[in-house]
Amino acid sequence: MSSVFSKIIAGEIPCYKIYEDDKVMAFLDIHPETPGHTLVVPKVEIDKIYELPEEDYVALWAAAKKIAANMERVLGARTLFKVIGTDVPHAHIHLMPYDETWEHGRVVEMSEEEMRKMADKLKFA
Question: Which pLDDT value is given to residue 104?
Fold first, then answer.
């Protein structure tokens, strides 16, 4: 069965996409812990990040590095990396702009307009 991330990658579920290449897609988390909270997801559906084929594993981390650097440049905040591996059975990395109010598991309510504006700020051309 396809994960929710595979459905997003296939275009079956809409998202606030900020990055895509042949191996990876990144989009805003719809339940962000901080504004700009982004999920970096390999296009291949594998549950555990350490079970990814080497090429996909390297591509995932390279994309996360590029997105985090852009996030820091655009938002002016340090970027936190989290790999949890229990919320969706599809490997992924959470990237979150850090602020002093951040708490693990906190959800920041953002309107659709705020999400769209954030995606526009972080989007790669």
Answer: 79
Spatial separation of the C-alpha atoms in residues 5 and 38, rounded to whole Å: 13
Residue 84 to residue 15: CA distance in whole angstroms: 21
pLDDT tens digits for range 81-122: 999 878 899 999 999 999 888 887 889 999 999 999 999 999
Q: Which domains does the chain have, with CATH numbers?
A: 4-122 (3.30.428.10)
Alpha carbon separation from 58 to 42, 108, 119 (Å, rounded): 10, 31, 24
Contact 41, 91 (CB under 8 A): yes
Task: Indicate if the pLDDT at residue 123 is higher than 90.
Answer: yes
Which SS3 state, helix, strand or coil, does residue 121 take?
Answer: helix
Q: Which residues are catalytic?
A: 92
Compute the distance between CA of residue 67 and CA of residue 12 in angstroms, rounded to an integer: 24
